[in-house]
Design a protein that fits this description.
175 residues; Aminopeptidase; 5 helices; 6 strands; 28% helix; ACY2 Aspartoacylase
Amino acid sequence: VDIPLVRRVAIFGGTHGNELSGVFLVKHWQENGAEIQRTGMEVKPFLANPRAVKKCTRYIDCDLNRVFDPDNLGRTVMEDIPYEVRRAQEINHIFGPKGSDDAYDLIFDLHNTTSNMGGSLILENSRDDFAIQMFHYIKNALAPESCPVLLIEHPSLKYATTRSVAKHPVGKYEK
């Protein structure tokens, strides 16, 4: 399979402000960017929902990880628009636009979970050859530790996740 080169990668933390692993990593990499930089590639650590992080709460008005649909991304900005919808529009402007050739190649969205599933990767499209090969590499690099891959693909649903702005959306959940 001929896969275009990945040149622009974003690492998101704080999509949910009370999930602190990604927040700590993003803040660390914002101060120590050399750890994640690679030749020929732009890697941008990004705090997705800074207001929720500041309050250490999941979200302010609504779940940021559910508002990246065309209706919300196309809403007119008004004073009463929910904070996370405005933030989604900003993220789409910076890393997208969603579905375009100009969108970032990869968004790696770091989350925490309270379920007992350990470290897990989330795949949104079973035909994303790049993500599948990357997951294979990650699983082999972590062996013998387990790292399940969860496919959340549905034939009639379009995902409105934060990471869905990228050409290759990847979620990472850690207990």
